């Protein structure tokens, strides 16, 4: 499946539960990555409601603005629409 189709499916899944967040493919050589930004301000920070919503997918928002799905997480995310909270098997650092 192409990166665009994967991004489209992920966008539909996330925006189905969290309609106020922005879900976009990254640009250039990082085009396989998916960026998720909040609606709070121009820096992409998340509202408390968006943080709770993204946490149901197992996506950690951290303190700054935005979250990212790595290329190897995308297939797992699409197959498991109700994603497990444990994403530790995808952490490479």
Plain-language structure description:
- There is one protein chain.
- This protein has 3 helices and 3 strands.
- It is α+β, with helices and mostly antiparallel strands.
- It has one domain.
- Helix 1 (3-17) crosses helix 3.
- It is globular, with a radius of gyration of 12 Å.
- The N and C termini lie far apart (27 Å).
Could you give the topology of this structure?
Blueprint: H1 3-17, E1 22-25, E2 34-37, H2 48-55, E3 67-69, H3 71-79
Antiparallel strand pairs: 1-2, 2-3
Helix pairs in contact: 1-3
Low-confidence blocks of residues: 87-93
Order of helices and strands: HEEHEH
Mean pLDDT: 79
Major beta sheet summary: 3 strands, antiparallel
| Annotation field: number of helices | 3
Calculate the terminal CA-CA distance, rounded to whole Å: 27 Å
């Amino acid at each position: 499946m192409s990166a665009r189709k994967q991004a489209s499916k992920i966008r539909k899944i996330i925006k189905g539960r969290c309609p106020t967040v922005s879900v976009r493919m990254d640009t250039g050589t990082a085009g396989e990555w998916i960026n998720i930004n909040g609606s709070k301000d121009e820096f992409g920070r998340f509202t408390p409601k968006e943080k709770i919503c993204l946490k149901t997918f197992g996506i950690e928002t951290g303190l700054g603005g935005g979250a990212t799905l790595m290329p190897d997480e995308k297939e797992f995310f699409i197959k498991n629409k109700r994603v497990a909270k444990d994403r530790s098997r995808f952490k490479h650092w």
